[in-house]
Amino acid sequence: MIILHNESFINRDEAKTDIEDRGYTFGDGVYEVVRVYNGEIFMLEEHLDRLQYSLGEIAIDYNVAEKKLGDLLSQLILKNDVVDGAIYLQITRAVSPRKHHYPENSVPQLYAYPLDLSTPEKEQKEGIQVTLREDLRWHRCDIKSLNLLYNIMVKQYAHQNGFYEALLYRNEEHVTEGSSSNFFGVKEGRVITHPANNYILNGITRIAVQRFCEELNIPFEEKVLSLKDLNTLDEAFITSTSAEVIPVVKIDEQEINGGQVGSVTKQLLEAFKNKVS
Ligand code: PDD
User: Could you mention a single GO BP entry for this protein (predicted)?
Assistant: First the structure.
């Protein structure tokens, strides 16, 4: 496997991270997972915009355009013969002695490499069950930060208990998103999802779904759902780079649409497949 480290391409076994990389000591960095279809990055510009946003919010001095990051990622895809798959990319602030404040003159460290990823076809077809968990994350979920401890804790809970995903809520009035996905409800033909603010990550697939809704004349509404609202949904689904669109047919014990995949969800999944095929 060939790895991109800053602006150099190296072999997997030459890639060594320093123990004082702030990504290790503080989780001081941000990341992206980009999907590759037919050798091309899906929604590259949107990923680079979000990456620049995350970097800016934690004041890591790295200019995506100046570094020609898009070109470097294209080269990485070619060097690894990625046709259908994904690239993981992370940028940490610096390698620096462990002091909490940001070091001066820091040199950000970028690593990018291919991920093994397969489309969850069965789940897309049959739908999944999710479990509700309290959202105990911080209040800056808009930053795609390396700090994923709570996300992995609830994912593990879901996994151990036979659920595909944990659906998070802050309180009875406020359902946010999945542990690694955005959540959508469908009610009377309208697609409803959490506003893109500090309580969720503004998913790239979420943006894609918003565009499909516009193209298909499906009303798209950004609104906070309550736990009670979940019981009245006609359909539900999650989205993410790896999941694309996956129908949710059961939330804990509560079936949605009698446990069947709904027609609006099907339409959006089909639009997605057409776009990337
Ligand atoms: N996660 N919300 C959270 C908390 C996420 O971690 C993700 C994606 C999303 C969906 O974003 P996108 O559509 O851009 O993938 C929403 C990635 C895939 C991950 O951590 O592997």
Answer: carboxylic acid biosynthetic process
Angle in degrees, 0-180, between the axes of helices 263-276 and 204-215, rounded to the nearest 10: 110
Distance (Å) from CA 105 to ligand 1 centroid: 31
Could you name the CATH architecture of 121-276?
A: Alpha-Beta Barrel (3.20)
Q: What is the value of pTM for the model shown? A: 0.97
The tens digit of pLDDT for each residue in 199-231 reads 999 999 999 999 999 999 999 999 999 999 999
**Start and end residues for every CATH 3.20.10.10 domain found in the chain:** 121-276
pLDDT tens figures, 232-247: 999 999 999 999 999 9
**CA 202 to ligand 1 center in whole angstroms:** 8
Instruction: Establish whether residue 240 lines the binding site of ligand 1, counting it when its CB lies within 6 angstroms of any ligand atom.
Output: yes
Under a CB-based contact definition with an 8 Å cutoff, are residues 75 and 29 in contact?
A: no
- Which of the listed residues 30, 32, 33 should we mutate to test ligand 1's pocket, taking the one with most ligand atoms within 8 A of CB? 33
Q: Interface pTM (ipTM) of the complex?
A: 0.98
DSSP character string of 107-120: --EEEEEEE-----
Task: Please list the helix, strand and coil fractions of the chain in percent, rounded to the nearest 5, in that order.
Answer: 30, 30, 40
| Intervals of CATH 3.30.470.10 along the chain | 2-115
Centre of ligand 1 from the C-alpha of residue 178, in Å: 9
Atom of ligand 1 nearest to the CA of 208: 13
* Pair of tokens at residue 223: 């609104």
144 as an active site residue: the answer is: yes
Q: Give domain 2-115's CATH architecture.
A: 2-Layer Sandwich (3.30)
> Which residues are bridge partners to 95 per DSSP?
21
Task: Please indicate whether residue 241, judged by its CB atom, sits closer than 6 Å to ligand 1.
Answer: yes
What is the per-residue pLDDT across 154-177, written as a single tens digit (0 to 9) for each?
999 999 999 999 999 999 999 999
